[in-house]
Design a protein that fits this description.
By secondary structure, the protein is α+β, with helices and mostly antiparallel strands. Helix content is 38%, strand content 29%. The protein is built from two helices and five strands. Strands 1-5-4-3-2 form a five-stranded mixed beta sheet. A hairpin with a 3-residue loop joins β4 and β5 (79-87). The protein starts with a strand and ends in an 11-residue tail after the last strand.
């Protein structure tokens, strides 16, 4: 079990952009709050079960599904770092983890 959860600057920005998009699109915060809660629950679950997601081509980087989104994370000895929040409906060629 990872002791600390860290969101990279990139992942924080992507998460914020997703939540802002849904707030503007829907005209209220209800869905954004639901989606934010879903992200938090998934990250807590990953922290508990580190190897829940699939391995990627990058060393120590795994990916798990959270609704329409993919959470990329890196496992370190005492830290779980969320690297990216990716909308699975986008073109995969645009994906950059670091």
């Amino acid at each position: 079990m990872a002791k600390r959860i860290i969101w990279s600057v990139k992942a924080k920005h992507e998460r914020r952009s997703i939540l802002e998009y849904w707030f503007i699109h829907n005209g209220n915060k209800n869905y954004s709050r639901k989606l934010s809660k879903q992200f938090r629950e998934t990250v807590r679950y990953i922290a508990k079960y580190n190897y829940l997601g699939r391995a990627t081509d990058e060393d120590n980087v795994r990916v798990t599904v959270c609704g329409n989104y993919l959470l990329f994370y890196e496992l370190k000895p005492d830290v779980l770092e969320i690297l990216s929040v990716w909308d699975g409906r986008q073109n995969p060629k645009k994906l950059r983890l670091k």
